[in-house]
Every structure is written in structure tokens, then in C-alpha cells.
Design a protein that fits this description.
Helix content: 10-25%
Order of helices and strands: HEEEEEH
CATH topology: N-terminal domain of TfIIb
Structural class: alpha+beta
Radius of gyration: 11 Å
Distance between the termini: 26 Å
Largest sheet: 5 strands, antiparallel
Bound molecules: zinc ion
Shape: globular
CATH class: Mainly Beta
Strand content: 15-25%
Length: 73
């Protein structure tokens, strides 16, 4: 049994800044531009630990925000 990632993204917020998340392939990405943390998904469970999250480059983040479907809209 697995919950699809889009459903997780609607339930969760970025633990670092409480912003919304988008799904990009198999990662979750924070929607807040100053934050830009990405969260890995392991065994279908998102790892929502800001300690383990890595910020992504501004250009990559912008590209993800453009192609990602925002949740809760
Ligand atoms: Zn964030």
C-alpha cells in the first residue's frame, strides 16, 4: 500500500519554513524561494527532515516551480 506523492504533498509543509511543497519526480521541493529545500522520498515515504534536506540551485528551483503542479490550488 502506498499513498501517492501528490497526496502527501497536500498534507505536508516544509518543516523548515512551513511553505507548501511540490512534487517533482521523486522529490518534494519547497515552494519558498529563500528556502528551496528538497526532500527525498525513500520507500514511498517522504523524508521530511530539514537536517537531511539539501537546498537546490536557484535556476533548478525556478525550473521545477515552472513545471510542477502546485498543490491546493
Ligand atoms: Zn521551505
Amino acid at each position: 500500500m502506498s499513498i501517492d506523492l501528490q497526496s502527501y504533498a497536500q498534507l505536508l509543509v516544509c518543516p523548515a519554513c512551513q511553505s507548501k511543497l511540490v512534487v517533482d519526480g521523486h522529490i518534494f521541493v519547497c515552494c519558498a524561494e529563500p528556502c528551496r529545500l528538497k526532500y527525498e522520498v525513500k520507500d514511498d515515504i517522504p523524508v521530511m527532515l530539514s537536517d537531511e534536506a539539501q537546498p537546490i540551485a536557484p535556476e533548478e528551483w525556478a525550473a521545477i516551480m515552472q513545471r510542477a503542479t502546485p498543490v491546493n490550488l
